[in-house]
What we know:
This protein has 14 helices and 25 strands.
Amino acid sequence: MASILVSGGRKIVGTARVSGAKNAALPILAATLIARGPVELTDCPHLSDVENMLKILRSLGVSCSLEAGTAHIDAAKAERCIMPQSISKEIRSSIFMLGPLLSRFGEAVCAYPGGCEIGHRPVDLHLKGLAALGADIREERGYIICDGHNMHGGEIHLDYPSVGATENIMMAAAAVTGDTVITNSAREPEIEELQNFLNSIGGDIRGAGTSTIYIKGGMEEVPAAAHRIMPDRIAAGTLMCAVAMAGGEAELTDVCPEHIGSLISKLREAGCHISCGRDTLEIRAKGRPKEIKLIETLPYPGFPTDMQAQIFALCTVADGTSVIVENLFENRFRHCAELIKMGANITQKDRTAIVRGVEKLSGAVVYAKDLRGGAALTIAGLGAEGMTAVENTEYIDRGYQRLDETLNSLGACGS
Ligand code: EPZ
């Protein structure tokens, strides 16, 4: 298992460009299956989750490459609708393939998806939405078997604004005959990004970013498409928490400040000075973070669950007590035990943690248990006395393009 060594006590100073968003790239890669012509995706991040998604596409007969941040995808010769279990159980986003496979081939077989073990992560809302579009779905021996030869438009109300279920239904509905309305849809920026991509390959979708999405069925023929993946709001937020923890000042470029409004508000509460441009953001932090009284994760535009672990690390050394409530996933506090090893004062029960800030953490050997928890431990190491070894950094590689190198380019010191 890989690891990184973080030496605490160094300030972060400099400029960093924010990479393309993992959680936009993954559904868009799935959606390339319904494109009629070749697709070029720029700012596509080099991540293990993206590599696994490309492996799934290749297993279906899609030709794809990713070099220097540009992915070239051509699904013209795609011919299979059964995804290999060996890969689909590795990542959550394999479930995103169901919608495109159904609309392309009228059938799909996939194993239950994998992904970070942050909770049970059922797929019932995905399957209920696809069934409402006419798919016949069976679950047998760990496989999801779908017959979509009679797919049609429909009206779907999501019991919960699930990001993945919203995306899966959008991709299935875009190519079938008949119109679809999704109500109580997720409003994350990645949903709007997927709408823009689907429309660029012949779809006719509107309303993404609100709680109601309108999809006109039937894709127009578009010979070829090019799309730039939007900046990763979570990668940007992670770097901002690193500055808040280590102190210093950084400029982020190619960032969408409007996508991280809730985080900016919390980091200002912690005493950071943050100024925003159209696609840049400057953050300055000095001394001990001030108390952030309450953090509750919520669907967008609420505080993002994918930033909970990172700001949690900051709260462990803040001048006061924080209450952190994780409303989306039932097992997303796995970084607590590791932070306690570093001297954090945490009381956690179920989905609530009470964090009493300490002056300083101490370096230790700690273990990443999931993607964002691994990033949080790296941030904690930046502010700790001495060296911190973060083990199992494969988790971090799922969602960050060499987080250690980015931080080192900003003056932190790790290896
Ligand atoms: C997406 O996961 C993201 N992953 C997650 O990011 C992110 O944490 C999550 O959205 C919430 O914002 C990708 O986009 C690849 P959900 P997803 O469906 O789609 C429940 C990261 O670190 N639910 O919105 O799986 C579910 O259990 C990752 O980058 C059902 O009950 O999230 C959870 O409690 C982690 N039934 C809640 O909804 C379903 O069918 C939110 O899940 C689907 C979801």
